[in-house]
Write a structure and sequence with these properties.
CATH topology of the largest domain: Methylamine Dehydrogenase, Chain H
Radius of gyration: 31 Å
Order of helices and strands: HEEEEEEEEEEEEEEEEEEEHHHHHHH
Oligomer: single chain
Largest sheet: 7 strands, antiparallel
Number of strands: 19
Shape: elongated
Amino acid sequence: MGLFSRLFGRNGDSNPESKNDPEPDIVIEDSLDSEFIPGKFRGERVTFSSVSSPNGGWRCLYGRSGITGGAPIVVTSGDGEVQHAFTVTRAQAVAVADTGHVAVTDIGEPDDQDLGGTLDVVGPDGQPNIEFEFDANIWECAITDNGQYASTATHNPDRSVYIFDVESGDLITKFETPDLNSPAQEFGEIDGEIALYLIDEDEPYRGIDLDGNTVWKSQSLKKQDRINELLDSSDEAGLEEAIELLEEAYELVDDQNRKKSIANKLADAHWDLSKEIRKEDGDTDAWWSHLNQAKQYYYEIVSWHDGRKGVAKVERKQAKYHLKKDDEETALQLLQSISALEEKFDVQLLTDADKDKIEKLS
């Protein structure tokens, strides 16, 4: 059933029953300013939430609990007079413009496992402007104060923000958000032009214009862009330059999983550079320094398979060096360190040659 056929109330002339029942039957049992408002709608008990337009001229009550046929959406004037109403399957978020336009994200039946959702925008006269169905789940929505534009955003796998022209009902912008999962949105202005802010952890993260161009970035986003730039550049750079780039990215990143991923790259780069130095110059201080730095970063990710394997190959190389210097005690300690890691993580790290050396040196 389309949204248009689900409209009813004073202005819902598309529904024949509306002529016999000109206004929705709604009973409110608490203040409209309460977080959850108990009441009845057409004889069925409902719990409502309330959202007002920025100028306070319009208010929307939307059912947080459903009734037969869906969740009711009731639009009133500022003085509480009911203007019109409609139902959606299950309302998640509502936004109200100063013009009386209402945007609603309908997230569907709770037991429906299929991805999807619908953005509905209804005008102040109770007529539908937009009913756009998605193949991904949606959550939040926004609408400009003047009711000209509305937006919503999708979860995985789509992860995009959509902006609509309310009057025409057309989708005018789709902006991919791979680093944000269905972010909240808020319309505003940048340099006198309409912009949509994408919200992350209750703070504006990015601002886009109606054409989908980024026109504002938070400090957090600027830092993430710098980290991505450093990582991309490190892939094309020589080992020494790559280490410098990765170290800067390592210091900038906050997310611990991503920090460990960069530590892995740093460990590999130091290891590869140590091999180059040894091939060209032999067992120099620089070679030893890069070995130690590789081991340091591998130890940082020792809970990962790559970290354990990395520590083992570095300590094996260092043990070989000490044996060449007739320092059997240090060599044995390094090989026993590999054995301890093997036992701790229940994974094979020692080679047959390592085991023979431990037995011989013990």
